[in-house]
Amino acid sequence: MRWCGFKIFVITAILTVGAFQCTFAESYGLSFYSHEVVQDKRTSLQLNTGNTLQSKDNFSVTFDLSFIAHQEIYFGYIFRLINDNNQNIDLIYDNQPNTKHFKLIVGEHLTQIQFNLPDKLLFEDWTNFKIIADFKNDKISLIAGGNTYIENNAHLKQGSNYKLLFGANAYKQYQSTDLPPMKLRDVKLLQQDKLVDYWPLNEYSGNIAVETVNQNNGVVTNPLWLRSRHRNWQLEKELTVPGIVSSAFDAKTQSIYLVTSDSVIVYSANGSKKMHGLGYATGTEELVPGDQSLYFDNKLYYIFTDKKLVATYNTENKNWDQRLKKLPSFTNYGHLNKFFSARDTSLYIIGGYGQLIYKDSVSKYNVSNHQWEYVKTKGDAFTPRYLAGLGTTANADTAYILGGYGSASGQQIVNPRNLYDMMRYTVKDKTFKKLFDLDSKGEDFVFANSLIIDQKAKTYYGLIFPQHKYNSHLQLIRGSLENPSYQVVGDAIPFLFHDVSSFADLYYSSETGSFFAVTLLQDNNNTHIKIYSLAGPPEVLQATASLASTAGFKAWWLEVFIGVLAVIGGILYLKRGKPTQFTPHINEEPVAPRPVVNHVAHQETEEIIASIEFPVVPNPTRNAIYLFGDLHLFTDQGAEITKAFTPLLKELFLIITLYSIKWGRGVSSEKLNEILWFDKSEKSARNNCSVNIVKLKTLLDKMGHYHLSKDTGYWKIDIDYDAIFVDYYNYLSIVSNKEELDKQKILQLTQITQRGNFLSNIEYEWLDTFKSDVSNEIIDCYLQFANSMKISDDPRFLIKLANDIFYFDPVNEDAMILKCKALSFLGKHSLAKTTYESFNKEYKEIYGEDFEKNFHAVME
């Protein structure tokens, strides 16, 4: 049985590798920049045959060609074939009306080879072209679209050292910058039906077109490799507009609608990349943060669920059928999900979040009679949530809702968590059905607003992102509608997430097979908008269901390498003879069941700790800055100004404050720019820094006793610690003098840390070092003080110290031993054993193996 399982494993690995190769086979080639860019940016491909062709023999050139849709100009050279006798054979495309557009030229002679191809063949498929030079019969033939065209008496000159130039070129007197917008792949040179040179054009990047037979590599200028377009998201458009913005998508016209307070902005995502605005004839509207828009049934709708408001935009009159005025400044349904069902001509609203409550309600708005209705659902329980992804079948009679964040009770304060369930909702019978749970190995994640459902393939696409970070990223996944499996596809998109101030959505065009991602971030009364595109089918970067980094997956052979390693690992595993569920070893001792948390024992331990009398010092709420737990800043009047900080100002404040308090010198402008404005030019970064420093100074003036300066060449914050309480400063005063630790200082440290972990709800990469240092220093202080005591001195206090250490490190061996011995000293032997078993369980979950010492060894 073990060998059978191993064979299945090997076959699966091979099929996985094969799947990668099949994906790559669908998505390669070279795309040419044409008249949509200036001459210097247009694409050229130069292929040299060297001495591989014998001049006396006939030869042929074949390639696959496709045109790029929705461009304004289709004119220019597809290729020029030139030999050392200075004879050129050119294939051009002429977009003049009432003519044959494809034309073949020999020298300066326009041949009789002229033809058209159907638009469907030309724009939606790859068409194979074959040009045959017959020197013996002085004839040239061209085969394309199933038809053969012949030019007799072509006046061909035999030669050698042929150059094959596609698109623009700068070769001698043949240079040209005119070319149609096209895609090219699989260029082959044959002589006597024998393959001489082959350029597949399947590169990801670079300016080299690899030749696979004789290493006659070609050179590309300004390439756009199609393989990269199936893996790397392209930033199509970036803009900032004042006020609130929501987005919608019309799949038929591939138009992205951006609903703003004074206009509807329309971006054509069909390739033309045009953008235009439709101003409101009625003037400025008052939109609500967190509201949403939807395009369906050839109309654009604005949705504000709180007021049961659905407004329709009239493109002719350029106004909404309802004025968007006197609306609240917030919504109780942030990040809700919505869809339109043609079955009952109704707009459906599911879930959402607001005022510390997650929603599980389903409501609908009938666009025919303009009536709202709460839907009483049946079937499996739908956990209240937001940040879920929703997609529908083609006729929208069934919706799939995946993941999100919420709680069983709907209350934010009661055990909120990430959700990974796939729920199906059917319009006809108003029923929810849970299909499965995703395997959420690795970092927790939620979903952008929409899923793309492929009903035929029974798959979905969705954008996921870790919601606990501000500097987050969106990652496309492809999953099954029938089981929990999914794959990471395409690379990541940078995404700044600030709860209801941020929004991300995923759109899909079946016409072009392209995906579009839209991100919105509201900041300082402006909304920053980014639009990305990815060609389909997207390439698989890894076959595991996790959010591990995809940075190392640069080529498919790495996937093969990983598969081989997995196979080797499987062989080694089997050679170890480790028993599996299929091969029980009768002579072995039965495996003890895993320990279950003993709630009675836990309660008794808490009672022991509660019996200790600790002095309670109230935290000041005037002139105070708290960095442990949630960030809070209080003025001398007791006013909290934390919410006045935008995400950018908050990060700027923390960088300067932490660098100032911990090291005293502050932080350089270069370091600030590297962290906050790494994607800006030097001038732009400097301007951004100056503007935001001024804003930060204005906010800090409200605190008093707080001076921001650059007197030493570093941005530094000087604080009067006698006037302002800063918990991080007090923490550093304690941990930096471990030799002077006593019980009072340990209690002061506990008073600081009981508010929570250091900046617990804030995630920045640069902050990780600070957080790690804080945890390590606190643990070291607790252990150093504990080691200075005897168990008999104060066993109850030592139990509390051990618990405090577990708060920062749940598998700290020293804390476990300390707690077990202290409990045993108090005569709580069963509690000591339970503590050890709980520790061992946690240890095994993290490290995959039992703790090396048994209970008796721990107690010695």
From TrEMBL:
It comes from the Bacteria. Signal peptide: none annotated. Keywords: Membrane, Transmembrane, Transmembrane helix. Pfam families: Kelch_1 (PF01344). Gene3D superfamilies: Kelch-type beta propeller. InterPro entries: AfsR-DnrI-RedD_regulator, Gal_Oxase/kelch_b-propeller, Kelch-typ_b-propeller, Kelch_1. The chain crosses the membrane at residues 555-574. PANTHER family: TRANSCRIPTIONAL REGULATOR REDD, TRANSCRIPTIONAL REGULATOR REDD-RELATED. This is Galactose oxidase. It comes from Mucilaginibacter jinjuensis.
